[in-house]
Amino acid sequence: MSSASTAADPTSVVVVGDPAVARAVRAAAEEAPISASVLLKTDHDVVVQHLCDREPGIDCVFASVRAGGLTLLDALRDAGSDVSYVLVADDLAPDGRRQALEASVMDVLRHPDDDRRDLFVRRAANVLELVSRRSASERRGPTVAPRWLVSVVTTVVDAICGAETRQDLEVRLCDGLVAIDSIGLAVLGRLDAAGETFEFRAVSGTPDGYPASDPWQSVSTTDEPTVVAARDRRLVVESLGTPERTDDSWRGRATACGFETVVGIPLIHGEQLFGVLGLYGREIRRGSELESFFERIGHVIAYGFASIEHRRALLSDEVVELTVQIPTRDVLSDLAARCGAVVVQRVLRRSGASDIVFLSVSSTFATAAESLFDGHRTIESYTTTGTYDGRTGLKIAVAAPLLVLDCATSGGYPRRIEGRETGTVLIVDVPTDRDVRRFLSELSNVHPGTSLQARRVRETGLEPTASFRTVLERRLTDKQRESLETAYFGGYFEWPRDNSSEDIAAMLGVSQPTFTRHLRTAERHLLELLFEDDCETA
Predict the structure, then answer these.
(1) CA 138 to each of CA 23, 133, 135, 245, 537: distance values in angstroms, whole numbers, following the listed order
(2) Residue 414, preceding bond cis, omega within 30 degrees?
């Protein structure tokens, strides 16, 4: 962390009324790592008085709902305190959540029980990092109000968690961001396949005269920040200044609308550009911390788009099957060249962890696969998941980019890999409503020379179960889903079992009891849906 507090000037965090939260925050600080003083308090009045007296030392407050966190929040706001505040909740009613968000609470978290401990620690670390960045910035001079940044984070997280489709996420983002006082206009768009026109996908808070309702032309010559961010794939933060402008340029129209700053944020995950978010509002002083914040927000939003695209490819009842020729090879291409073909069973994109690929090869070539993976820079680790129907399953953790991951990022689902002397042939499924030209264009941006060899529409047979799968995906946590998938592809449900619970736990890198708990929870959700009268309303 570039701006962590020093040992002489630690970030001070007060946790009110919950020792478990204090332990999690301490662990988060150590993991970050930053220098942090974490104090456990039980008396609300002492905390309020400390802050009201403007005594130095408290940078952030964590408070549990069960320990009166909402009451303390009211008291702090009544006292005029703007300290960063995290509300920890078991189950928070809508009124309580609304109250917390209206008060610009840093985050509203579930209580860290066993299943969510890791998630809480990561979020706690993010909060502490934001606090330490703010503290470092304040020592050099003000940059931007912490509440403004907090509101952006909260809006982005809520939009990603609540969206089911790409369009839904686009609208939620723009509508939510415009609700923040500092932002008067939010635009989300992208360049067309030819790279000549900037197309609007969602616009919220549009004042009269800006932006134009039609797509922006002259992409190659304009210096409009949002378009430049899309064209050059880089963050653009531009202050417009205060001089009066009467011309019809974008600057004149933006200034006439009262905008002082424009921020163009490219939404990039891996090598894929999912679009650009343009924010127009009040003056925000430039600085490396602010730019780093916006870059990270762009990566988070892009990850949300990538997840939606990938899930949609999995759950489509009808897909377009593409045969794609890519003039490059990777380790899986080399494996396919040796054994004829590699079947891709599942690709798991994971934020903050190695991506996972489940695949299978003819059992005749299983030893060759393992010898190829040993010590290969692309493969972080691998394990055999079982042998069935003459094929051996493999689970690989990926340490470097793979062609199948690039396909998944572009919104497709790779099914089969074939190695060629001139490159790689991939069989890829994409949803029928996905623009095939755009998919190929996005893939070509990463791998120039990519070409389409064949296409056909194919039924997946998922129509009767699509809603069932969608509801199940919503219910399962990432760990529960990964445990269930690893157990299935690892032959845990075969008779006799190809791998024991200890074997599957080792594949996941967790203890056997932890694996069993996640698997049992996932199985319970699965059976609840199976035996409920109507899974649509589950």
Answers:
(1) 28, 9, 5, 33, 49
(2) no
Digit-coded pLDDT (tens) for 105-135: 555 555 544 444 445 545 565 656 555 555 5
The answer to whether the Cα torsion of 470, 474, 478, 484 is positive or negative is: negative
DSSP bridge partners of 343: 360, 416
Quote the CA–CA distance of 151 and 297 in Å, as a whole number.
12
Residues whose CB is less than 8 angstroms from the CB of residue 219 and which lie 6 or more positions away in sequence, other chains included:
191, 195, 196, 197, 198, 227, 230, 231
Q: What is the 3-state secondary structure (H, E, C) of 202-237?
A: EEECCCCCCCCCCCECCCCCCCCHHHHHHHHCCCEE
d(CA 359, CA 357): 6
Predicted pLDDT at 335 = 92
The CA-based diameter of the chain, rounded to the nearest angstrom, is 79
Closest by CA position to 18, among listed 38, 46, 48? 38
Q: Which helix (H) or strand (E) holds 18?
A: none
Distance between CA atoms of 10 and 8, rounded to whole angstroms? 6
Torsions phi, psi of 251, nearest 5? -65, -45
Instruction: Give the total residue count for the chain.
Output: 538
Per the CB < 8 A criterion, the answer to whether 338 and 377 are in contact is no
Q: Which residues pair with 360 in a beta bridge?
A: 343, 393
- Residue 388 CB contacts under 8 Å (≥ 6 apart), including other chains: 491, 494, 498
pLDDT in tens, 303-317: 888 777 766 655 556
Coil, strand, or helix at residue 192? coil
Average pLDDT for residues 257-281, to the nearest whole number?
A: 85
Give the whole-angstrom CA distance, residue 459 versus residue 439. Answer: 20
Cα distances (Å, whole numbers) of residue 442 to 175, 270, 358, 445, 510:
27, 12, 24, 5, 36
3 state SS of 463: helix
The H or E element that residue 431 is part of is: strand 423-431
Q: Which stretch, 124-128, 158-162, 185-189, 270-274, has highest mean pLDDT?
A: 185-189
The full DSSP string for 87-156 is: EEESS--HHHHHHHHHTT-SEEEE---GGGHHHHHHHHHHHHHHHHHHHHHHHH---S-HHHHHHHHHHH
In whole angstroms, what is the distance from residue 467 CA to residue 365 CA? 38
Give the chain's end-to-end CA distance (angstroms, integer). Answer: 43
**Host H or E run for residue 39:** strand 36-41
Going from the C-alpha of 414 to that of each of 307, 343, 430, the distances in angstroms are 15, 9, 9
Spacing of C-alpha 386 from chain mean position: 31
